[in-house]
Every structure is written in structure tokens, then in C-alpha cells.
């Protein structure tokens, strides 16, 4: 495949790692990146090492603008991922350093109030856009897709979102995306993403799938500071919490909750889009997919092994369970970003073949 010029929207915990992992893959050139305060664009290829060094421990992950205040009226380029506004003195939590937060701390970064529009303006020379943006406002990513389509972008867009309800919002915009020539790959991180694809593969032994069980383990000690956005989103899945309460929590409240659980949070029946993505690929009913897992923010070791088990019936009447297991040494970052870039490449292959619209990870695997 020819070289793929790609952009990353959002250089938080996930976006930074996407850039890093891309350096270990053939045929991928990062040409643009943005966060809420800044943008870096170089069509001959960004200096990824410099960008990563400048943003190390310095992610613009809070909901504030560059001045450290939450805009009174949210603009198109504003999405609140909650909480950090409650941090004393503003500044978006521990990782943000005032006006130098995030990409603007890089020599390649420029401050801007319209980071996403700045990338859209350059999108003619971009083959693929990976959205590593916050997802607590569920229509944010679909709205960003719409903006690229309205600007007649032709290329791939890919997200690593988690929540089931976002898929329908993208499907609602499918005609617009198709008209523009966009191949949108949704839910293409670890779960949903890697593990959804694994389930689609594991299902191939069967003619009927009864149940898909996804059970994940993540140890995040060294990556905790870089993944606070993701941890906050996960908290919304705990009993007694929802998206609104998770968004409204201060960093201190999150710390207190984590202390209460000795750093280990266990989740059951999570609203992860693996369910709707497997249903839309015709593999099983969404209600037969169960996602849960254990997150340990105080240890790098996984608290449990990540597995995908698919139970079904073969053509000759046997009932069995195929299980796909990740090695405990593979980190969350490896299992989100490797697959995201792999699905990005699959998206580009499809886009260049003229296949436009919304695709889930299971749609890019053998059919069922
Ligand atoms: N599918 C999976 O397995 C999986 C795993 C982990 C995380 N995720 C998802 O990845 C996404 C990112 O998570 P994270 O931990 O990197 O979050 P984060 O908070 O660390 O980073 C978010 C980034 O987006 C930027 N941003 C926010 N609003 C913006 C705007 N309006 N314009 C431009 N940039 C903006 C921020 O500045 C920051 O750089 C989340 O949606 C999360 O659910 C998915």
C-alpha cells in the first residue's frame, strides 16, 4: 500500500500513543495533530519524537480553553470531558501547564481556537483521520465527522469510541459520509475494536452464536496520569454512576473513589459497542454480548487476563466455545493503538476501492 498520510485529532493518552506506535509501522506518516488548544501540521511529516517529548506529562486534557476557563457557550470545537474544571486554579488537572498545555508546547505547535477546522482546511492532503477525542459528550465524534463531510473530505475517519449509542449516531449520518467519499471505521480500539474483530473470527466455527463474553484486564499504574479521561469514562459504568455523575466529578472525588476500591475497579455489563457492532455484522444479537473487566490503576500488571469467548453451535450440531486470549504482557496502549492503526490501514484499502459509509471492526473481518 502506498504511504498513508494521517492526522490525529486529540493528543491525550490515546492520541500520543497512536503517534508513537505509528513509528513502528510501515507506510504511515503523521502529518497533522491537534488538541483542544493547538495544532501541528507538516505535510512532509511531523517530527513525532519532538511532539511526544513536548507533550510528555503535559496533555491538554481538561475541558478548559487555553486560558484555563471553560467557555460559557460551548463552540463546535469545544467538548467537555468533565471534572477537571473543578481543579483549583483551573489549568485542567495535573497534566496541563497553563497556556503551554499540550501541542502548543511543541516547536511545531501553533495555538488556535479552531483546531479541528484547521485540520479540515488541510484535509485534501490527508488520507486518514484518527479521532482520539473525548467521548463523554456522545455526539461530539459524530458531529466532527459531519463537519469533515460538509467540507467534502474524501478519505478515512476512524474512532476508538466505546459507547454503543454512538454507533447509531454515525449510522444516522451515513448518507452524508457516503456522499463525501468518507470511509468511517467506528469503535476500532481494543474493546470495541480488536476484541470485536476477534469475536467475529471466533464465530466462524459456528452457524449460530449464542453468547459473546468479553472480559478485559488493564493495569495502568505508569499510564494513569495519561489516561484520566478514559478512567473517568469507565467510572460511568460503575453501579450508582452514570455519564452525568462521572462528568461532574472533581479529580479529588475520582481519587477518593479509587482509594475506596484500593485502586481496583471491576465492571460488569458495560455499555460497550461490541454488542451493536457484532449485531450489525449479523453475528449475534446485541443482547447476547456481555462486556466487563477489571482496571487496576496502581499496578502495571493486568489484574485479570483479557479474553473473548464465543459460544455457538456448529453446522453438525456441536456446541462449543472458542476463546481468544491476550498475553498479559500486552498493554492497553498496545491493544488500542496497534489495532486502531491496523483498522486505519484496512479503512484506506476500502476507501481507495470506493467503499464509503460506516464500517465496524467486524465488517472488516470474514463475513458471517
Ligand atoms: N476502544 C478502546 O478500547 C479505548 C480504550 C481507551 C480509550 N478509548 C477512547 O479514547 C478516547 C480518548 O481517550 P484519552 O484517554 O486519550 O483522553 P484524553 O482526555 O487523555 O485526551 C483527549 C484529547 O482530546 C483533546 N480534545 C478535547 N476536546 C477537543 C476539541 N474540541 N478539539 C480538539 N481536541 C480536543 C484534548 O486536548 C486531548 O488532547 C476516549 O474517547 C476513550 O473512550 C477507547
Automatic annotation (TrEMBL):
Residues 59-97 are annotated as: Disordered. Keywords: Aminotransferase, Biotin biosynthesis, NAD, NADP, Nucleotide-binding, Transferase. Pathway: Cofactor biosynthesis; biotin biosynthesis. One of its GO terms (biological process) is biotin biosynthetic process. The modification Allysine is found at residue 162. It catalyses: N(6)-[(2S,3R)-2-amino-8-carboxyoctan-3-yl]-L-lysyl-[protein] + CO2 + NAD(+) + H2O = (7R,8S)-8-amino-7-(carboxyamino)nonanoate + (S)-2-amino-6-oxohexanoyl-[protein] + NADH + 3 H(+); (8S)-8-amino-7-oxononanoate + L-lysyl-[protein] + NADPH + H(+) = N(6)-[(2S,3R)-2-amino-8-carboxyoctan-3-yl]-L-lysyl-[protein] + NADP(+) + H2O; (8S)-8-amino-7-oxononanoate + L-lysyl-[protein] + CO2 = (7R,8S)-8-amino-7-(carboxyamino)nonanoate + (S)-2-amino-6-oxohexanoyl-[protein] + 2 H(+); N(6)-[(2S,3R)-2-amino-8-carboxyoctan-3-yl]-L-lysyl-[protein] + CO2 + NADP(+) + H2O = (7R,8S)-8-amino-7-(carboxyamino)nonanoate + (S)-2-amino-6-oxohexanoyl-[protein] + NADPH + 3 H(+). The keyword Transferase applies. Coiled coil: none annotated. It comes from the Archaea. Its EC number is 2.6.1.121. The active site is at 162 (nucleophile), 233 (proton acceptor), 237 (proton donor and proton acceptor). The keyword Glycoprotein does not apply. GO terms for molecular function: NAD binding; NADP binding; transaminase activity. In cannonical biotin synthesis a pimeloyl-conjugate is transformed into biotin by the subsequent action of BioF, BioA, BioD and BioB. This enzyme replaces BioA and performs the first half-reaction of BioD. Monomer. Belongs to the BioU family. This is (S)-8-amino-7-oxononanoate synthase BioU.
Amino acid at each position: 500500500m502506498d504511504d498513508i498520510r494521517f492526522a490525529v485529532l486529540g493528543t491525550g493518552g490515546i492520541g500520543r500513543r497512536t503517534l508513537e506506535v505509528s513509528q513502528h509501522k510501515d507506510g504511515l506518516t503523521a502529518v497533522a495533530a491537534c488538541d483542544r488548544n493547538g495544532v501541528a501540521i507538516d505535510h512532509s511529516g511531523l517530527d513525532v519524537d519532538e511532539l511526544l517529548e513536548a507533550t510528555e506529562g503535559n496533555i491538554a486534557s481538561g475541558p478548559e480553553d487555553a486560558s484555563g476557563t471553560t467557555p460559557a457557550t460551548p463552540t463546535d470545537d469545544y467538548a467537555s470531558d468533565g471534572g477537571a474544571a473543578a481543579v483549583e486554579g483551573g489549568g485542567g488537572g495535573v497534566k496541563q501547564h497553563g497556556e503551554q498545555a499540550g501541542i502548543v508546547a511543541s516547536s511545531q505547535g501553533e495555538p488556535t481556537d479552531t483546531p479541528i477546522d484547521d485540520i479540515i482546511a488541510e484535509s485534501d492532503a490527508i488520507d486518514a483521520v484518527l479521532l482520539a477525542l473525548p467521548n463523554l459528550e456522545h455526539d461530539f465524534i459524530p458531529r466532527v465527522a459531519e463537519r469533515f463531510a460538509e467540507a467534502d473530505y474524501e478519505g478515512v475517519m476512524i474512532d476508538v469510541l466505546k459507547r454503543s449509542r454512538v454507533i447509531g449516531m454515525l449510522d444516522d449520518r451515513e448518507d452524508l459520509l457516503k456522499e463525501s467519499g468518507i470511509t468511517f471505521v467506528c469503535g476500532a480500539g481494543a474493546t470495541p475494536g480488536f476484541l470485536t474483530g476477534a469475536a467475529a473470527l471466533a464465530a466462524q466455527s459456528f452457524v449460530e452464536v449464542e453468547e459473546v463474553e468479553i472480559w478485559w484486564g488493564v493495569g495502568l499504574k505508569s499510564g494513569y496520569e495519561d489516561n484520566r479521561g478514559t478512567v473517568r469514562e469507565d467510572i460511568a459504568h460503575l453501579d450508582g454512576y452514570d455519564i452525568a455523575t462521572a462528568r461532574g466529578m472533581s479529580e479529588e472525588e475520582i481519587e477518593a473513589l479509587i482509594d475506596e476500591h484500593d485502586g481496583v475497579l471491576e465492571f460488569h455489563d458495560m455499555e460497550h459497542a461490541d454488542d451493536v457492532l457484532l449485531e450489525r455484522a449479523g453475528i449475534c444479537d446485541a443482547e447476547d454480548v456481555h462486556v466487563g473487566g477489571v482496571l487496576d490503576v496502581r499496578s502495571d500488571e493486568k489484574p485479570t487476563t483479557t479474553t473473548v469467548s464465543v459460544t455457538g453451535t456448529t453446522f453438525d450440531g456441536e456446541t462449543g466455545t472458542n476463546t481468544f486470549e491476550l498475553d498479559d504482557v500486552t498493554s492497553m496502549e498496545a491493544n488500542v493503538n496497534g489495532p486502531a492503526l491496523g483498522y486505519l490501514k484496512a479503512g484506506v484499502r476500502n476507501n481507495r476501492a470506493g467503499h464509503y459509509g460506516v464500517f465496524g471492526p467486524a465488517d472488516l473481518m470474514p463475513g458471517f
